[in-house]
What does this fold into?
Amino acid sequence: MLEVSDLHVSYGAVEAVRGISLSVTPGRVTLVLGANGAGKTTTLRGICGLLPIRRGVVTLDSNQIGGMSPHRIVRRGMVLVPEGRRVFAPLSVLENLRLGAYTAPRSQFDADLARVFELFPILSDRRSSAAGLLSGGEQQMLAFGRGMMSQPRVMLMDEPSMGLAPAMVDSVLNSVRQIADSGMGVLIVEQNADVGLEAADDVVVVARGEVVFSGPADVARSHSSVVRAFLGEAALAETQPRAEGR
Ligand SMILES: Nc1ncnc2c1ncn2[C@@H]1O[C@H](COP(=O)(O)OP(=O)(O)OP(=O)(O)O)[C@@H](O)[C@H]1O
Ligand SMILES: [Mg+2]
It folds into this structure.
C-alpha cells in the first residue's frame, strides 16, 4: 500500500536522508531501526509531506503522494503519530480525539470513537481528564487514538516507546500489534533493537541516512549482533538508560 523509493530529504545543504526505500503492507508492521540522528524522523516527515522531498517516489495505493501537503495526505489515509506524542495537555482526552477527527466525516465520529475506546479502554475511563494528567504510556495511547480518528489505512509512529517505563513499553507494543491486526499498515521507527524487533514483521535498518539492511524481522532477530553493530549498540552497556525527551 505505501511504497517509498529512493527518498532523499535535505535540510539546506545537509542531506539527512539519502536514498531510503521501504514498503508498508496492510496488517503488517514495518520497523525502521536507526541510531540517534540516523534520519528516521526526517524519513517520516518526508513521507507525510512535512518536509520537501528532494528526490524519490512516495506512493499510497499506487497513487503518487510525494510533494502533497500534509493534510491532503491525511485525507488520503496516512497519518503520523509524532515523536514525543504531542498531546494537547490542557485539553481533555475526548477533545484530543475530536481534534484527530477533523478530516473524517462527522457522521462516522461515534463509530470511530467506539473503535478507539475498544482498543484503549483506559481512554474511555479517562475521557474527561486533561491529557496532561495521563501517564506517558496513556498519552502514547491517546496519540495513537487521535491518529486513528482520521480513519487511516497507514499509521506512521515515531519512537512510541521513548521515555516509557518497561512495562508501559510492552503495553504500547501490544497496541501497535493490535492496530496492525485490525488491518492497518504500520510504519514504526525505533532506535532500540530489542524494543522494535519485538513488534515488527519487516525491518529496515538505517545508518547516516542510508539503508544498511532490509528484510524480514526473523532474519534481523537471528542476526541481532549485526543489527546492533549498525546501531552502534555493541559499544553500549546493556544497562545504559535511554535518553529521554530529546
Ligand atoms: N531542522 C534540522 N535542521 C538541520 N539538520 C537537521 C534538522 N533536523 C534534523 N537534522 C539532522 O538530520 C539528521 C537526521 O535527523 P533525524 O531527526 O531524522 O534523526 P533520527 O534518526 O530521528 O534521530 P533520533 O533517534 O534522535 O530521533 C541528523 O544529523 C540531524 O542532526
Ligand atoms: Mg527522531
In short: The mean pLDDT is 92. Residues 40-41, 83, 158 surround magnesium ion (ligand 2) (CB under 6 Å).
